[in-house]
Amino acid sequence: MTILRADLYTKSVLTAIAVLLGVLALRPVLRPIPAQAQSEGRTLYIEPGVTMIRKPDGSSLGDGKMVVDLKSGDVWGFPTMVLNARYPVDVSNSKPAVSKPVYLGRFDFSSLSVEK
């Protein structure tokens, strides 16, 4: 009689394990995870405040915002057109001003290494 109970218990436990494993295996088939095809976009750091924007040839554009692309290390300057302005301002025009980016250089993030 005890052998019959042990056999019934073992079969019950094995059946429960098989059913639960089947549920785990069929979950992705019945409810698949949707694919995400969009890109991550750019990771930009915008320097707080205003800084002097100079082109690589040494010519000055005046004050502006500095933006660093954290993935590539590219540095861009956005002239604000007015001294100490935190956003683009064009006092000669009633339309909103648009500041075009000026490529300033690149930080070489690939050469960063931890030396011990």
Helices and strands in order:
Blueprint: H1 2-30, E1 44-46, E2 51-54, E3 60-69, E4 74-79, E5 102-106
Antiparallel strand pairs: 1-3, 2-3, 3-4, 4-5
Structure description:
With 116 residues, the protein is α+β, with helices and mostly antiparallel strands. The protein folds into two domains: 1-30; 44-107, no CATH class. 25% of the residues lie in helices and 24% in strands. It is built from one helix and five strands. The chain has one helix at residues 2-30, and strands spanning 44-46, 51-54, 60-69, 74-79, 102-106. Strands 1, 2, 3, 4 and 5 form a five-stranded antiparallel β-sheet that branches. The model has no long low-confidence stretch (mean pLDDT 85).
Form type: elongated
What's the end-to-end separation, in Å?
69 Å
Listing every helix as H and every strand as E from the N terminus to the C terminus, the arrangement reads: HEEEEE
Q: Provide the helix percentage.
A: 25-40%
